[in-house]
Amino acid sequence: MRGILNRLIVSAQSNRGREALWRAFAAEQVSRDKRLCERLSARQKHNVWSLEAAIDGTQGLA
Question: Taking Cα atoms as reference points, which of 55, 35, 29, 58 lies closest to residue 43?
């Protein structure tokens, strides 16, 4: 494990290594943002369904 970490540090010290690490970091951030948006969308849908159920006087999905 330590060898891998040292290689990453050495490669990060070169311009190409830094660019590769930055691209990997940026891709992970985009992935996290997409997952967060999906979760928020699901939560918002649940809230709409709950509100509709309350208006209709039914149990709904809540």
Answer: 35
From CA 32, how far away is CA 27, in angstroms rounded? 9
Q: pLDDT for 10-61, tens place per residue? A: 766 677 777 887 788 888 888 888 887 788 787 787 887 788 888 887 654 4
Helix (H, G, I), strand (E, B) or coil at 22: helix
SS3 (DSSP) at 34: helix
Please say whether the beta carbons of 16 and 22 come within 8 A: no
How many CB atoms are closer than 10 A to CB 50?
14
